[in-house]
Structure formats: C-alpha cells, structure tokens
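> forwarded from #structure-qc
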C-alpha cells in the first residue's frame, strides 16, 4: 500500500559516521561497487554523493522493490539522518517501514516536530503504528526532559491507536524518569509493568530493574534499591554487567553507612549478600554474612535457603555443606 508522503525539509549538517565494521554490516544487500564506495567514502560530501548515486541507480531499476529502497535508506540513516531524509524526499513510494526510518532520523536530528508530522502521516494513511515507530519519539522527548509527555504517549495514546508499548518503550520511560530524579515514579511504573504482566502485558526485564535501581541509588534511597535488587533476583533474573556495577555501588553506599555509625537492618544485609552471590563474589558475601551475625542479626530460613541455592547452582556443594555446619 502506498501513500502520499510528507516532505521533510529544514535539517542541518549530517551527523558523524559510524564504525567501519558497522558500515559493512549495514551495506549488506547493496550493489558491490557502492559498498566499497561507502566504506571508503565515509561521511562528508563524498559520502553524500555516493548515497545519492546509489539511490539514482536503485530508482532507475524496474525491479527495485520498496524493501531495496528501505534497506538503502536505513544504511544511510544510521550514518547521516539528514542525508537519509533528503533521499526519502526522492522516493516514489513509501510504506510503514520507510516512515519508521524517517521518524528515527528526525528524532535523532533533534527535529521532533518533523517526526510527529511523519507519525501523523502514518496514522492518516491507516497504517497501524508499531512500538518501534514510537520509540524514537519517546527517546527524543525524554532527552528534552519531557518525560511526562512521553509517558502520556506511551500509556494513553499508543494503546488508543492499537499499539501496545513493549519493554523497550517502558525502559525509555524508566530512564527518562530516573534522569529527572523521579526514581519513585519510575519504581511505581516498574510495578505497573509487573501488574500488567499478570494480565498478559509487558513484564520488566533486567534492564528495567537495573535502570530503576541505579536511579534509586543516585537519589540516596538505599533501602528501596536493595529491596528492588532482591526482588529482581527473586524473579529469577540474572544480573548483567551493568547490574554488577550497581552492586558495587551499593556496597560503597553500605560502607559509607557503616563509617557514619549507622547499622543497616537484616533486609539490607540479606539483599546485598544475595546480590554478591548472584555476581559470584562469594568471599565478599561470606565476609558480609559474618559481619551480619556479629552485629546480632540472626539469619532466618529464607536467608539460608537463598545462600544454599546460589552455592548449589554454582556447583559449590562442599561449600554449601560447610555453611550448614
């Protein structure tokens, strides 16, 4: 299905280039001579000339499909959104995928007004917008500290248009809220995702949890950060390299509390030990467990079950038996 297209103009200088390896991946499916030209030409005037020359060749072919045009447009867009938009204005036809690329280009170039104009064309044409269609708009709004507007789009307007936000959509919102020091609202949104999951909605992933944990730590809400990390592990999610970094941050905050003469409670100890075990930091976890007991905080059955579970999963059965003695 084709449509009349919205013309996109008024963009400034193209962005800088991407890595050579990434270019080679993007150029798959393009004519061989133009693959070599793009890899050698890079950005600037030469790169723009090669991109226009490639499009000239594609447009002259009777067999060129919209898929071919979109592939070429996407390859150029990742390197230079402004050039991609100038090429888009020469395309004889477009589909939803084309407009997804255009919306992304406009958003990355800082022209949200043009991105919303392109989205309006998608809606008027009768296409059903996808979550990927809205993602660049959400990122652009959050980057401009307009996270509340982004939340209105994701939570109200997208469902009204028959488009369900996915985990990536929610993660954009969570990061936007935390970047604006609104981690408590991010925590509420995270729990909303969990509630929706019980009705077949969108469950949070490890990125969702890590984003909110980081926001809580930055705002000094240590207890909530510890509890959320514990909750993430209880959901059966394995920490990624970013989460491990947050465990280290949490330990730094913990050490600061101790140096200030404050005594963390059993929840804080249990969560930290849980996190250290999940990150394979067994010696530090054992050291913290000894300190917890030394402070008169008695470990309960849940604590021992959690510790033994981590040890057994790691194949440390002998150490697990020692922990029971």
């Amino acid at each position: 299905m084709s449509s009349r297209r919205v013309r996109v103009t008024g963009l400034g200088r193209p962005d800088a280039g991407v890595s050579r390896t990434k270019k080679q991946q993007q150029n798959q499916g393009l004519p061989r001579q133009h693959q070599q030209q793009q890899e050698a030409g890079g950005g600037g005037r030469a790169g723009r000339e090669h991109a226009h020359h490639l499009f000239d060749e594609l447009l002259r072919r009777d067999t060129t499909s919209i898929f071919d045009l979109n592939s070429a447009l996407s390859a150029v867009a990742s390197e230079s959104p402004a050039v991609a938009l100038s090429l888009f204005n020469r395309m004889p036809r477009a589909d939803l995928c084309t407009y997804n690329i255009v919306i992304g280009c406009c958003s990355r170039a800082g022209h949200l007004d043009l991105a919303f104009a392109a989205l309006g064309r998608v809606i008027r044409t009768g296409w059903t917008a996808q979550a990927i269609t809205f993602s660049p708009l959400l990122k652009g709004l959050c980057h401009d500290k307009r996270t509340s507007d982004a939340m209105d789009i994701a939570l109200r307007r997208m469902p009204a248009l028959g488009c369900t936000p996915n985990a990536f959509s929610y993660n954009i919102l969570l990061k936007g809220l935390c970047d604006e020091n609104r981690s408590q609202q991010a925590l509420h949104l995270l729990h909303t995702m969990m509630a929706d999951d019980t009705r077949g909605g969108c469950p949070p992933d490890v990125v969702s949890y890590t984003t909110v944990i980081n926001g809580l730590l930055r705002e000094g809400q240590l207890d909530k950060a510890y509890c959320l990390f514990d909750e993430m592990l209880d959901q059966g999610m394995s920490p990624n390299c970013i989460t491990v970094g947050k465990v280290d941050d949490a330990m730094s905050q913990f050490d600061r509390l101790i140096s200030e003469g404050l005594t963390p409670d059993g929840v804080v100890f249990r969560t930290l030990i849980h996190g250290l075990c999940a990150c394979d930091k067994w010696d530090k976890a054992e050291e913290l467990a000894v300190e917890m007991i030394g402070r008169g905080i008695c470990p309960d059955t849940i604590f021992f079950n959690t510790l033994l579970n981590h040890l057994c999963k790691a194949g440390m059965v002998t150490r697990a038996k020692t922990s029971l003695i």
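QC bot note: DSSP finds 18 helices and no strands in the chain. The CA atoms of residues 288 and 294 lie 10 Å apart.
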